[in-house]
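It is worth pausing here to work through a concrete case rather than discussing structure prediction in the abstract. The textbook approach is simple: state the sequence, then state the predicted structure, then interpret. We follow exactly that order.
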Amino acid sequence: MSEAPAVEVDLRCPLRLGAVVIGSVATGVIESLAGSALLRGRLQVVQDSGGDAAAMAPGMSPGMAPMHAPDPARGRGPHPPAWRLQPHEGMAPDDALDALARALCEAGLGGRWRGERLAVRGPDGVRVAAIERAVVRTLGIATWAVHLMGFTTDGRVWLQQRAWDKADDPG
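Step two, the predicted structure:
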């Protein structure tokens, strides 16, 4: 029997807006935004792990290594840390997430900017903010869509066709 090929798994960390889980992010994505001028004064990104929190981007603490693996010596179990997005005082969540989306796209970590904001919902389905469509996959944010089908009395089925100019899966 041959061995299965090694599969590299992209470890994802929970992503929170305040206390609400809104998605998940691959390791290294948030760290790559350290020092982003687009986030400064708009959004604080904090790594929560095992009850302690360490301030990160912007101006990520030098010498601070984000935890991505179990470390029993530090009281951390097998779960990755969570990243918490905290808008600065007076900043609306939508505006703070817009700054994050722009920083991700500037760093080459988002899709094509479309100028289309999608609802960001918590686990209970309640809208907590909105964010640019270009970064929902990067941030593991669930999206909602509507697809229509029609049935006629003579047995025909009407299906909508996806537009040919869509960035993802045209036609």
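Step three, interpretation. The CA atoms of residues 118 and 143 lie 7 Å apart. The helical segments are 93-106.
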